[in-house]
């Protein structure tokens, strides 16, 4: 991956953070990606790496925006509502879907990937 030094400024002051420590593990990304494609499909190393970068940047962005909101409200903790606000403010259309999934998780204590996919299809098709 290309060096993007400085893109995560203000993230805690660790100047010696290795680039690879700023990304989710590639094996986790690959596992998620494989659930979305047919069993016989292949995913290139470049595709995995770009997804790793994009997912990590998305998490950084959403968390940074949520942190700014909590700071403006003079709170030290980011909560789920801050994160959902951040996703909504960024223009992503699935905030309501995330709220539904969060409610189901709170009721059952289980995060069901397949139920999330089902809700996603239902939400976007209706």
From TrEMBL:
Domain Transcription factor CBF/NF-Y/archaeal histone: 22-87
Record Gene3D superfamilies: Histone, subunit A
Domain of life: Eukaryota
Signal peptide residue numbers: none
Keywords: DNA-binding, Transcription, Transcription regulation
UniProt cross-references to InterPro entries, sorted A to Z: CBFA_NFYB_domain, Histone-fold, Transc_fact_NFYB/HAP3
Region feature (Disordered): 1-20
GO molecular function, one term: protein heterodimerization activity
GO BP field: response to heat; response to water deprivation
Annotated GO CC locations: CCAAT-binding factor complex
Pfam hit, one: CBFD_NFYB_HMF
Family label: Belongs to the NFYB/HAP3 subunit family.
The protein, known as: Transcription factor CBF/NF-Y/archaeal histone domain-containing protein
Originating organism: Zea mays
């Amino acid at each position: 991956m290309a060096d993007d030094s400085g893109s995560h400024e203000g993230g805690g002051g660790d100047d010696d953070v290795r680039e690879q420590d700023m990304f989710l593990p590639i094996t986790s990304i690959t596992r998620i990606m494989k659930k979305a494609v047919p069993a016989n499909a292949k995913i290139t190393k470049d595709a995995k790496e770009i997804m790793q970068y994009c997912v990590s940047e998305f998490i950084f962005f959403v968390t940074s925006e949520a942190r700014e909101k909590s700071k403006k409200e003079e709170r030290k903790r980011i909560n789920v509502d801050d994160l959902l606000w951040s996703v909504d403010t960024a223009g992503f259309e699935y905030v309501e879907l995330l709220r539904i999934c969060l409610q189901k998780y709170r009721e059952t204590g289980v995060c069901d990937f397949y139920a999330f996919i089902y809700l996603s299809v239902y939400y976007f098709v209706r």
